[in-house]
User: What shape does this take?
Amino acid sequence: MIEVGLNHYLAVSSILFALGIYGVITRKNAVMVLMGVELILNAANINFVAFSRYSNFGINGQVYALFVIILAAAEAAIALAIVLNIYKTYANVNVDEINKLKE
Assistant: This one.
């Protein structure tokens, strides 16, 4: 039977982080960019909890992960409100085509 160790968690976290970076860089839709940011934050949460579990740091990893989850919820609410307002104004949420905000 294979025992799940710290390396397994780090591998999953690095895959999530890479997918999040890929989503942020390659997507033009603002909602997809936000989903990439959420993947990056979830990768950080996995690292916090895994290092907390496999080291002598106590419960600090879970506390940091809780703060990141709260921050991600606030970021998602504000960002979605901004995206909805942009869509209402310009009928488009593509990041490349929203350069009219400068004017």
Remarks:
- The mean pLDDT is 84.
